[in-house]
Structures are given as C-alpha cells and as structure tokens.
Amino acid sequence: MNKRKRIEEIGESKHRQVRQRILQERKTDILENLAFELSDKIRRLRSNAGLLASTIRMRGEMRVASIPRAQRNMKLRDFQSFLSSNTPVTPWRTRIQEFYKLEELSNSKRRQNSSKSSPSKTPTPLRMTKEKTSTQGS
C-alpha cells in the first residue's frame, strides 16, 4: 500500500509557477479594474442623487412660495373660514361667467342647442371683443 509520490521535474514546476504568477497578476488586474469601475459608478450615482435631491427641494420651495405668506401658518379651519368669508370676485371670473352664462344655462337649454340642425353660434372670446369694440365705436 505504498503510494508512490509523483516526482515533478524541474521544468514542470517552473511552468506551474509562471502560470500561477500570470494568473495572480491577471486576478489583481481584474480586481483593480473592478474597484475602479465601482468607485466611478458610485461617484456618478451620488452626483445624480444630489441633483435629484436639489431639484425636489427647489420644487417644494416653489410650491411653498406660491402660497401667500399670510396663509402659510394658518390652520385648516382658519383657512376654510377665510375662504368662505373672503371670496373676492376677480375680473376674469366675472368675464368667464358672463361669457358662458353658467347660471342661466340649464340641461334643457343645452339639449335644445345641441338638437338644432344648424351649428351653434356661441360667441367666442374673439367675437365678443369685436362686438364690444364695434358697439363702443358707434
């Protein structure tokens, strides 16, 4: 049961050493490249995350800035009472209400207008301004 140990020749052992050295150098090169790529990727991701965070912050600040300062610290109940008591009628709202006459139009009138064979001649804003200017000039 004596096992014979393999006796390696001198050339064969040198070949293995050279091969192992090449493999080791290749492994270190691959690991260095991988480490470089990872660090580069991490740097890019961090910069993108920083840009995203700053844009989100700016959007939030813009939304807050669009709220009037007097109303920023109001509680919801105070804001609700403020809205119900102080609803100013802005000129553009009155123009829109006059133009479309939302209060006067009911579903029956809308159906009558849509059932007519001729196309409806509701004045457009351009027509209204022309009519107003023509009546004002004469």
UniProtKB/TrEMBL annotation:
Skewed-composition ranges (Low complexity): 114-127
Region of interest (Disordered), ranges: 104-138
Domain of life: Eukaryota
Family annotation (InterPro entries): Borealin_N
Cellular component, GO, one term: mitotic spindle midzone
UniProt cross-references to Pfam families, sorted A to Z: Nbl1_Borealin_N
BP-aspect Gene Ontology terms: mitotic sister chromatid segregation
Biased composition (Basic and acidic residues): 128-138
Domain Borealin N-terminal positions: 27-80
Protein name per Swiss-Prot or TrEMBL: Borealin Nbl1
Origin species: Schizosaccharomyces octosporus (strain yFS286) (Fission yeast)
Lineage of the species this protein comes from: Eukaryota, Fungi, Dikarya, Ascomycota, Taphrinomycotina
